[in-house]
Design goal:
Shape: elongated
Radius of gyration: 15 Å
Largest sheet: none
Number of domains: 1
Strand content: under 5%
Order of helices and strands: HHH
Number of helices: 3
């Protein structure tokens, strides 16, 4: 299993890329600071905070299982956010 630093980087990169995609969509569609985009960005920030809190949790019995769970949750939440982003184009 990769180390904690790599997990933190993955969380940062994945959610950062989603936020950047929202900004690109807003720039391309002339929807500067759209309400829909703001909602997705706020969700991404909330997911980031939630996952980082879990990464820094100290009283964990099985670290390997704990971090695997965090990675799975990142994948699930990122997929939901990307689906929301894709709905903006429709």
């Amino acid at each position: 299993m990769a180390n904690i630093r790599d997990l933190k980087k993955d969380i940062n990169f994945v959610l950062g890329d989603i936020i950047e995609a929202v900004y690109l969509w807003e720039a391309g569609s002339d929807s500067k600071e759209s309400e829909e985009g703001t909602v997705i960005i706020d969700k991404a920030i909330a997911v980031f905070d939630e996952l980082m809190d879990k990464v820094h949790k100290k009283d964990v019995e099985n670290n390997k299982a704990h971090f695997r769970e965090i990675r799975n949750e990142l994948e699930e939440k990122a997929t939901e956010l990307v689906e929301d982003l894709n709905k903006l184009d429709s």
